[in-house]
User: What shape does this take?
Amino acid sequence: AFIGNHLPRRCGIATFTHDLHRAVSIARPDLETGVVVMTDPGHTYDYPPAVRFQIHDEAIGEYIQAAEFLNNARFDVVCLQHEYGIFGGEAGRNITELLSRLEMPIVTTLHTVLAQPTAAQRDVMHQIVDASTKMIVMAEKGHQLLRSVHGVPAHKIEVIPHGIPDFPFLETHHAKAKLGFVGKTIILT
Assistant: This one.
């Protein structure tokens, strides 16, 4: 199961969660998957069927209900997408209500690791680290900050670098043909 924002909500985490869920679903079509999404105040979204539960960020009861849903569905692992500001409560503290109730391993992807967190941000991060089996960061700097600022053991951190899909290189004439530019002169003024 995945927890984060999801398309059609327009944000980077929504796209990331959507793409990650899609990649796992394609790689392992035999697995049951689902997404728990954060819905921002005053908005409604036409989520796809993969979205199995919605949480309004300030509705603490919905975090608890989401934990019950995930436990009852018996997912093998939960993959949390963490970014300050997604979850309700001071420094996103509400997510810890959900995480503290889960009965399966949690793998947390951190989209931001702060060098100088506030006391509240530090406390929330420590609760997330304690609840998580693994912490994923996308840069070596994130790994260093987790170690130096938060004291996370190295064995608990994995670095998976940012990237783009691996497409085979094609000569430019293929793209030109596809776009209808073959045999045409283009003058830029």
About this structure: The longest helix spans residues 12-27. The CA atoms of residues 134 and 156 lie 5 Å apart. The radius of gyration is 20 Å. The chain has a mean pLDDT of 92.
